[in-house]
Amino acid sequence: MKKLIIVGGGHAHVEVLRQFALEKPRAVEITLVSPDRHTPYSGMLPGLVAGHYTFEQSHIDLQPLAAWAGARLILQQAGALDAARRVVTLADGSELGYDILSIDVGSVPLAQDVPGVADHAIPVKPVRGFLAAWAQLQAQVRAGAVRGIAVVGGGAAGVEMLLAMQYRLAQLNPPLVPAFALVTDTPQVLPQHARGVRSVLERRLAQCGVTVHRALRVSRVMADALIGRTTDGQEQRVAADAVLWVTGAAPPAWLADSGLALNDKKFININNNLQSSSNDSVFAAGDCATIAGANYPKSGVYAVRQGPVLAHNLRCALAGGSALLDYTPQKKALALISTGERHAIASWGAIAFHGDWVWRWKDHIDRAFMAKYRGA
Ligand SMILES: Cc1cc2nc3c(=O)[nH]c(=O)nc-3n(C[C@H](O)[C@H](O)[C@H](O)COP(=O)(O)OP(=O)(O)OC[C@H]3O[C@@H](n4cnc5c(N)ncnc54)[C@H](O)[C@@H]3O)c2cc1C
Question: Whose CA is nearest to atom 38 of ligand 1?
């Protein structure tokens, strides 16, 4: 009996589990390790915050999915990996040996070592921690205790989260409406998107009364403000009783001591077969891994597309075969960016368009995606 350990219930792994449920690999003992029974679907996270979706609608329940795939689910975090010994150590210190290991544990927000972030900011990931802090923040806003909220990160995720939070808080009719600020160290918001997308979102932020601080790098976070430094070295203070940290993707710290080959940013180095470039028995997908030489963003759509290739390659490696499939990242991906209310902007290379119908289109795509993992 071969042992397969699947670490993390990320976007690629849910597809692996679904494919294994549809056709079970023979003579394989499968173990799924995840700290959470419910894994969030990032596309619906802003909608959950805005109040358009419930927790259940925006999360995949790993328990029935694992059972359907014939996998044992261990509700723990993997804390360490010794790739040379082929052993994963869980948070409680117990060890699991494997023949084949697959890692899809996502990423964490960048630059959390900025002074004060650990004490005063709310990182958007892990999502479980963010949702607990968001519930607390809503209660504080209801009590009229929050004057200002700053979101750090001017990418699509930061802008979507800001607009979703603002929309939701307005529904609560608080005695004091918090002022919102968006802080980004880039000269403009959404630098990776076309001008048309940026101008629609800039207009929306202005309509919503959001103060946008561009080219401001946060150097300190305090209980009631953050301090940033402009490109010419000036210090600027932004008042905020709550700071949401939605910076780019950084790798989970525990990968550093795994013995796996990592790239310069400490993500797992993989080849086009989604296999570790240093250890044949290890596969990795999603945000935590990067294909050497390929240039594609850390985004859920890539993790989703890796799922079927990963499922095939794990099956093949377990059977001792060598007919692994190549994964080629798509050159550009459609991004559907929601703006708080049931309205969204589509961004496809240089093309941009928006409307309520774009939100309904996104809603349809997202619900269809989730339905695939409720087949158990
Ligand atoms: C607000 C927001 C909105 C976004 N919207 C979009 C969008 O619309 N479209 C898009 O393409 N991308 C979007 N993204 C980006 C997207 O979230 C990531 O690119 C995507 O989640 C990566 O998928 P993944 O499979 O690598 O990891 P994840 O989806 O993050 O899943 C990782 C899983 O691993 C688990 N895990 C973590 N550490 C461990 C451990 N040590 N042991 C075991 N399990 C572990 C986690 O609990 C989690 O369930 C958004 C991001 C944010 C923050």
Answer: 105
Q: How many domains does the chain have?
A: 2
174 CA to centre of ligand 1 in angstroms: 31
Residue-wise pLDDT for 172-206, tens only, equals 999 999 999 999 999 999 998 999 999 999 999 99
Q: Indicate whether 141 and 210 sit together in one domain.
A: yes
Asked whether 201 and 156 are in contact (CB, 8 A), the reply is no
Task: Mark whether 123 and 63 lie in a shared domain.
Answer: no
The domain containing residue 325 runs over which residues? 2-107+251-334
* Residue nearest atom 11 of ligand 1, based on CA coordinates: 300
Identify the residue whose tokens are 């210190």. 93
Residues 82 and 113 in one domain: no
pLDDT at position 375: 65
Beta bridge partners of 275: 283
Q: Compute and round to an integer the Cα radius of gyration of the chain.
A: 21
Claim: this prediction has a pTM higher than 0.85: yes
For residue 287, how far is its CA from the centre of ligand 1 (angstroms)? Answer: 7
- Give me ligand 1 centre to Cα 184, in Å: 21
Q: Strand 2-7 vs strand 100-103: parallel, antiparallel, or unpaired? A: parallel
| 198 shares its domain with 118 | yes
Which residues line the pocket of ligand 1, CB cutoff 6 A?
7-12, 33-36, 39, 42-43, 45-46, 77-78, 104-106, 124, 126, 157, 160-161, 246, 252, 286-288, 298-301, 303
Eight-state DSSP code of residue 262? B
Residues 210 and 236 in one domain: yes
